[in-house]
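Entry:
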Amino acid sequence: MSSSSFIHDNWLLLSPSAQTLYHDYASTMPIYDFHSHLNPQEISSNRRFRNIADLALSGDHYKWRALRWLGIDEQLITGDASDKDKFMAWARSLPEMAGNPLYHWTHLELKRYFGIDELLSADTAESVWERCNEQLQGDELTTHGILKKFKVNVVCTTDDPIDSLEDHMKIRDDRSLETVVAPTFRPDRALNIRDAGFTGYVAQLGQAAGVEIGCYSEFIRAVTARVDYFHQHGCRLSDQAFGELPHAPSTEHEAAYIFARAIKGEEISALEEQKFQCYTLLQLGRMYHERGWSMQLHIGALRNNNSRMFSRLGRDSGFDSILDFNMARSLNALLNELDASGQLPKTVVYTLNPSQYEMIASAIGNFQGSGIKGKVQMGSGWWFHDQKEGMLQQLKALASIGLISPFVGMLTDSRSFLSFTRHEYFRRILCNLFGTWIEEGDLPRDYAWVGQMVENICYNNADAYFGIK
């Protein structure tokens, strides 16, 4: 196979039906990226990247992890080596990543961002480095240029409750940017009561909210104030991350007692943390429902497992893994508690453990609601599973046990402005799945009908569900 033919028009589309669905329906849809970790400051400043290493490798722990697997020295990954040396190390290493989604993603990125068809390797690295860097000097590949190039209509960042949202305000005032950039309320630090920095964080939260926090009721008042502040600045969804979804029923009195001990610096047990988190998460869910927000739950990451590298590089550096655990009871209990009082917000549940896909699909079917298609969603294949087999496993579980037609689709979950091609990657896999169903007789050969479902999953469902304008 020649290098120029790898990412071709019908790449990953293995039947005429798949090709029709992709080219006639999916490929032209804009992007609704409702969960990312993009830095809003880089959008507000319309950042121009120094070079391809700055754009492709900085902060990308997927790539860091793969390089470590090949024994590449950390100096060439997160160390003080030059950008060019880091890129050359990446280029030399990529041919050894066959079967990993990074091999697909990298070549798709090179073609869609830079029009480069060659396979990246030690032999092509110098040429690719020069051509990419030349294009990065223009306006098409600044952060604003990228959002326009890939027809990104909406992108949501991930923001701490104490964030001033100053950059979001600047973005809203910038009439030259057509993309809607909205914040997402991410209260993890307010929930992780056993963290060493919890007391200091509570003080920061109080300062941001203009509330002096000395007890649990004042803490909730401060959180509510920040939810309202985010709402005023365009936020319409939240995100909470847990290793295991907590399941320890509690009362307001218990939560208040645990909180009071925590801000005095007393040691809090794992069970007490779960009780605090359970009760507080219910309060958050009710706030979200009242304001028409959606609640995202990211569950199942076992984080920062390498203590030596954590002390050196900190979190989000490529040392996380999949947590094995059970959560059917806790998930059903959480959804039921909110549903029982009529305060269940629209909810998207992601798991890092694919053995739970079928369980989640069955659980969310218990709590769907009148007037909202797919009120409770199973989120797309996440993190280790936003690749071909992981996506297919999630899509098939959702379709066979629940309904795929209201699915809100793909997101980047990325810190990199190179990641928007993951929407194309997902759409090709989605169209190939529907195309296979047509070819095998599981769906009629009605392209208008199936194509409408494809368009909905690619964009329309998310637009209707999240309501961000």
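The longest strand covers residues 237-242.
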